[in-house]
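Re: the multi-chain job from yesterday

Posting the exact lines I submitted so nobody has to dig through the queue logs.
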Amino acid sequence: MSRQPRAELAQVVLQEARRLVADHGLGALTARQLALSVGCSVGTLYNLYPNLDTVKLHLNAELLERLAVAVGVADAAAGGPQASPEQRLLAQARAYLAFASTHLNLYLALIDNRPPTTDEPAPDWFLEKVARLRRGVEAAIAPLIPDGDEARLERAATTIWASVNGLCEGIVSGNLARVSGTDPNLLMEELVATLAAGLRARG
Amino acid sequence: MSRQPRAELAQVVLQEARRLVADHGLGALTARQLALSVGCSVGTLYNLYPNLDTVKLHLNAELLERLAVAVGVADAAAGGPQASPEQRLLAQARAYLAFASTHLNLYLALIDNRPPTTDEPAPDWFLEKVARLRRGVEAAIAPLIPDGDEARLERAATTIWASVNGLCEGIVSGNLARVSGTDPNLLMEELVATLAAGLRARG
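And the result, structure tokens for all chains:
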């Protein structure tokens, strides 16, 4: 493997890291196991990425990108700017839940950034990928926010994302089944309908 | 330690487990470290609890109980049945966030029940502690649900809990700071105000 160009090898490492996490969860991502999967030494690995947190950051960035595409496609299919905020929000939330369900371990790895991992500030290129998802929500609800108030729009979009993500996490982790036996899809519809009605009512 | 009565030793084990998780996170809770902290053998430990998941279940049950008390006290201080749904929901959500912030590692251990841990059905005495928190939300929003529709009430309460928990998790984990720089308290107020207004508007 050592004859591969550096950039190419770095890609192979990410690919193997993704496979490990997808198949066995974030706990399976150790330097030793990763080097074994790639077929290189641990030294070579640390020559490409300073630490495992950097590998995780790239994995998460990749997932955010795929998530943004999935949500964007669903939003467009629902009509995009021609659809109502309610229709767009529900399409986005459903796509988010479907993506999390079908990429369970990678999704859990995305939200399992626990302190002190998160003590390091995230680089701008990563924050841009986060912002892209938030802007998708902003586009959907903008007609419900009066006077184009940007601070309010960001606040509303952030809470909607966090709450949809919270419900989504409860569903796919199995934790929510302990709270209620209701069909998860009905719960997502209930949440989105209430949030949209609330934004509309508050003005 | 082996001369202590069995029930007493089981309590000491829980107490040490709680201290380990609170101080160092769920990852620090290994059988070896726990036995070392208690001052007994790993064999004695497994004689008291069949596995670490059972220890975690008891830790989580204890935390749910303390969380329910904290939320209940805040709800009562806000006026309880004499207060509006908006006032009660906000008081409960603020208490939830404050509790999670001050018991960070124990809170994260509570929601970090990931598959396959959750494959085992939770015992009824545990589910009752979960239901207690959900019923607190139901009490707050009941006046907003028409015709005393119990299925709708449970659905609404479940989504409110999951969404408040999602925002709370985003805040205390530091993940949400990557989405928006807005004051977390403002975000919680925004979410609760929107949910309550939404329930009121939908009827």
